[in-house]
Design goal:
Number of helices: 25
Strand content: 15-25%
Helix content: 40-55%
Oligomer: single chain
Low-confidence stretches: 402-416
Radius of gyration: 34 Å
Mean pLDDT: 82
Largest sheet: 8 strands, mixed
Number of domains: 4
Length: about 800
């Protein structure tokens, strides 16, 4: 039977190629997105008993309900007391560090991602070094000898995979640390880029209950529920200020309603990307359905074209089962060919998806690949597709009546409506499904256009940005940092083509972040009131000129002088309007904590989108690099340099790097990008979804319209005699064209109407991905209908022209 199917398909190469391509597109797209979905969402985390791992955060009422992480005090509190429901509770915080192997003085240190972790973090994850050891409790105390555990990649890069690496030393942020362990090659936590793990060394004496800068992670005891774990944490949280005294008033602490939150670690790692991936998977699933519907339509057309041959075979004794097996064999052969090509496309597609998702911030991408699980899924999809596309022809073959078919095949017969109905239903379904996909793509395009129109509040053109970290071991005070920064900016301003240069600790449209409660002198709060929380940034005076942020009133900051710091601040327009609407903000005083010296507002600047474009611009406060309230912590670990130039910003990168290295050869520069690239990256996730939905929509639209064209063209072939008779009786070319095209347009109109209901019901899943556009946006839906209708008209016009060119005498003579 397979041999007969292959011989029959060789005789129809166009049909075989069309079916193979359409199935390959559907199977390949579905299997490729499944590979990404499986790697990110469906696979368990790569740790022992990952279902017992949880993330520990808090809810708080501060400027409305919000979520915060752990403070060092809450971590120590939970580790001391919470033992009934947890096997262990660990903590970590991430930061970038400068690293060099001892003796690498000839080259600048490398900048890597690191994590400061509690000694029990590896045991909590059930992870152990492949070489050496993890951290001991004695390593995780203030003043302990400096040690580090490194990744397999860093071990190979810095030590050439030397088996005797244990005991060797690395210089990290200017301080030597002994390498005590090397993690396995596949270990990726907290992120795929983490290359070194350093003891966190929390100090109970200096713990700050109000500084929530640590991520908490715990392992539940067997059988413990999230509710039980939350309840035990809640029992001990009220002891926080008793065990770790603070300047925070107890009344204020009570008013913020701090409560523990326990969440499965997998949910935190994946974040909000799950819905995005399910949407993409549903989209390519619809594409596969459209492809199968079109292939089924082609099979029906092929079966109807061969009905006379089938009827002759059955009249000569062939059973209905043999005829059904013939169609099924053809479907299996073509589906297998489509599946093979689809698997190749899926493997290439996964690689392309990983590349296109680079800026979309998708988690666990390092674990994504087209492996045995994805291959099994692809084979299953291939088998299901074979059954789906052969089902209708097989069912129709079982209903073939040889006598009726032979009679309808005579000269006097025309195409029956019964045979047209199945093809028409499939075309309507294809058009409806294509509209659902196209409407989602249109909505994302509208959303992307809205994001592109958002004014970020700064001018990114001609601005280069890069980062430099000043190691605390070398630059131990803010004063030493500021002296280097002043020299660096003075040198940068002398470079040819440079108009201005500045430094900040929060670069717009990045995940830099610094919040603090703000106290206003002229708006005192009640003793138990919670001060408002606002984002703040530390900037050099030319920050606003370099980024093109307008100074609306007052003046900018003075040049930072480590010997004579001044209490100055600038606020954004929205901040000034919130607190001093109708008044001048210049001359008002504020401070970035509950106690301490006041800073005078010397100017108001334009609003800037610092976190993202799809959120309102932040109500910001800007402070100088050093002020009388400085606590000595400095900004070195998060310092960004911006340089405005008259030419192409990227061309200036090497010159800026040389200036930095000339001042201090031990400082690496990193994250070197024009600000235009950061602005483009701000809409990367929307662009990624638009790309994926757009490709699926275009393919589905093409398949649907090919199906419409195929049905109408085949209908013209079947109705040649009828059309010839009509034209012989006086029908004009325009009459025939309208008849055929009208049938196609009518089918498309029904599909569009049905698809509109599907679109209205399904586009709500895009709600969280849209910006400035409703899921039922009339403009997007109307544009979808217009595009689809226009394509349907074109697809219908071509067969109509073919019908209109029929010679009546030749048509009747051929039949």
């Amino acid at each position: 039977m397979m041999g007969l199917a292959i011989r029959r398909l060789r005789a129809a190469p166009g049909f075989a190629a069309a079916v193979t391509i359409m199935l390959a597109l559907g199977i390949g797209a579905t299997s490729g997105v499944f590979g990404v979905l499986d790697g990110i969402l469906l696979r368990p985390l790569p740790f022992g008993e990952p279902e017992r791992l949880v993330a520990l955060t808090h809810s708080i009422i501060l400027n409305g309900p919000s979520k915060i992480d752990q403070s060092d005090a809450t971590v120590l509190l939970y580790q001391r007391h919470v033992t009934s429901t947890f096997e262990s509770i660990g903590a970590y915080r991430t930061r970038d560090v400068n690293v060099a192997a001892l003796g690498e003085a000839a080259a600048p240190p490398e900048r890597i991602a690191a994590a400061l972790v509690s000694a029990n973090l590896f045991p909590t994850l059930r992870a152990a070094p492949a070489r050496g050891r993890g951290f001991r409790p004695d390593d995780d105390r203030p003043g302990a000898p400096l040690v580090v555990v490194i990744s397999s990649a860093l071990w190979q890069r810095k030590f050439g995979a030397d088996p005797a690496v244990i005991g060797r030393r690395l210089v990290i942020d200017g301080a030597e640390r002994e390498v005590v362990g090397v993690m396995p090659e596949g270990f990726r936590y907290p992120s795929a880029s983490t290359s070194a793990w350093i003891p966190l060394a929390l100090d109970p004496v200096r713990a700050n209950p109000g500084s929530f800068n640590y991520q908490g992670i715990g392992r539940l005891k067997p059988g413990v529920s999230l509710a039980s774990a939350t309840a035990e944490l809640s029992r001990y949280l009220p002891r926080l200020l008793d065990e770790f005294p603070s300047d925070i008033p107890r009344e204020m602490f009570a008013k913020v309603q701090l409560k523990p939150v326990v969440t499965p670690l997998r949910d935190v790692v994946v974040g909000d990307v799950g819905r995005l991936l399910w949407i993409l998977f549903a989209a390519v699933g619809l594409l596969l359905v459209v492809a199968c519907a079109n292939v089924a339509s082609l099979f029906v057309v092929r079966a109807e074209g061969a009905q006379r041959d089938v009827a002759v075979r059955m009249a000569l004794g062939a059973g209905r089962g043999a005829i059904a097996k013939q169609y099924l064999a053809e479907a299996l052969v073509l589906s297998a060919a489509g599946g093979v090509v689809g698997i190749v496309l899926a493997a290439l597609g996964v690689r392309a998806l990983r590349a296109s998702a680079a800026g979309a911030d998708l988690p666990r991408m390092a674990e994504v690949g087209f492996d045995a699980r994805a291959l099994t899924f692809a084979l299953a999809v291939t088998a299901v597709s074979a059954l789906a596309v052969s089902l209708l022809p097989v069912l129709r073959a079982r209903r073939v009546a040889p006598g009726v078919v032979l009679k309808e095949s005579s000269r006097s017969a025309t195409a029956g409506r019964e045979r047209q109905r199945a093809r028409s239903i499939l075309v309507v379904a294809q058009v409806a499904l294509a509209l659902v996909l196209l409407s989602g793509s249109m909505l994302m395009a509208r959303s992307f256009a809205e994001l592109r129109d958002v004014r970020p509040g700064f001018d990114p053109n001609g601005v280069l940005s890069l980062r430099v970290a000043l190691p605390r071991a070398i630059y131990s005070t803010t004063e030493s940092e500021v002296r280097l920064i002043n020299r660096l900016l003075d040198e940068l301003r002398t470079l040819p083509g440079v108009r201005s240069a500045a430094v900040t600790d929060w670069l717009p449209l990045t995940d830099d972040h610094n919040d603090s409660v703000i106290t206003l002198e002229d708006q005192p709060l009640a003793p138990d009131a919670v001060p408002p929380d606002h984002p703040l940034a530390y900037v050099s005076p030319d920050h606003f000129a370099t980024l093109g942020i307008p100074v609306l009133s007052g003046r900018t900051l003075s040049r930072p002088d480590p010997d004579h710091p001044v209490g100055e601040a600038l606020v954004s327009r929205s901040f000034a309007e919130r607190y001093w609407k109708g008044q001048s903000a210049v001359g008002k005083r504020l401070r970035a904590n509950i106690k301490g010296p006041w800073s005078t507002v010397i100017g108001v600047v334009g609003d800037v989108h610092l976190a993202s474009l799809d959120q309102p611009a932040e109500q910001m406060v800007y402070f100088p690099l050093i002020s009388p309230a400085d606590d000595g912590s400095g900004i070195g670990n998060a310092m960004a340099i911006t340089v405005r130039t008259n030419g192409e910003p990227s061309a200036l990168t090497s010159r800026v790097r040389e200036v930095v290295h000339a001042l201090d050869p031990s400082l690496p520069t990193y994250d070197e990008r024009p600000m235009t690239a950061r602005l483009a990256n701000a809409s990367a996730r929307t662009r990624f979804v638009l790309l994926m939905l757009g490709v699926a929509s275009i393919v589905a639209l093409t398949i649907g319209m090919v199906g419409l064209y195929g049905v109408l063209a085949y209908g013209v072939t079947l109705r040649r005699r009828e059309i010839g008779v009509r034209m012989a009786l006086g029908a004009t070319v325009q009459d025939v064209t309208r008849m055929i095209a009208g049938h196609g347009v009518a089918l498309a109109a029904v599909g569009i109407a049905m698809g509109m209901f599907g679109a209205m019901a399904s586009t709500h899943v895009l709600q969280g991905l849209l910006y400035g556009v409703s899921p039922t946006d009339p403009l997007a839906l109307a544009a979808t209908c217009v595009v689809l209708f226009a394509v349907a008209v074109i697809a219908s016009w071509l067969p109509a022209r073919q019908a209109a060119s029929i010679d009546p005498m030749e048509a009747m003579r051929r039949d």
